[in-house]
């Protein structure tokens, strides 16, 4: 008796080009968003905001900022606030995520935020340690941050992970430090359903290219991901790796 084992070929969601490197540039993500702490509101039940966690997204006069606030037990709450007046006046903050039960206080990855002016959608990605499992989660608002839908898991894993998000209309792409990899590498999930379901996933960086701290750009079906290598990140060097691909 002969048993035939058929292995299905899983097509990668992105056809990637070669890995390249460049020097860091003005506009690359860093902690400079902390200057947006002016008039930052205090969130109920927290002891104070994590100033270095503030991240912003802006188009014209529209500015959105997201940040962690620490509770007395060192768990955190994620909040977001919108200004339609270039930061001169802010709407009341919205609590996005309160399920964290970790004890890291402000010593944690900052959230990733993206605003799509075409649709008016605001997207957030972030790492928390919830009672049902730690990992990277995605949340989005379809009314410029007035209300957020229930968070969707991106990847489960105990290692604190930086993540970045980009979107255009119903297309959403998230990249993240893989919390389950023995070597630092960047994973990716993709959705054509506004992030309600991430039905495609893959790996951005080859196994022999260590990578941390990713950020992403989406232009139609063309995806570009940038990252730092662990040695450059720790040493303060200014080399940035990147790779572009076509979303199949």
Which terms summarize this structure?
5-stranded antiparallel sheet, mainly beta, 248 residues, 1 helix, disordered N terminus, 45% strand
What does this protein look like?
The chain has 1 helix and 18 strands. The chain has 248 residues and is mainly beta. The strands form 4 sheets. Strands 1, 2, 16, 17 and 18 form a 5-stranded antiparallel sheet that branches. The model is unreliable at 1-8 (pLDDT under 50).
Helical coverage, percent range: under 10%
Number of strands: 18
Q: Sheet bearing the most strands, described?
A: 5 strands, antiparallel
Low-confidence stretches: 1-8
Short summary of the structure?
This protein is mostly beta strands and 248 residues long.
Write the layout of secondary structure elements.
Elements: E1 14-16, E2 20-23, E3 48-49, E4 55-59, E5 62-70, E6 76-83, E7 94-97, E8 112-116, E9 121-130, E10 133-141, E11 152-156, E12 163-168, E13 171-177, E14 186-191, E15 200-203, E16 212-219, E17 222-228, H1 230-235, E18 239-247
Antiparallel strand pairs: 1-18, 2-18, 3-5, 4-5, 5-6, 6-7, 8-9, 9-10, 10-11, 12-13, 13-14, 14-15, 16-17, 17-18
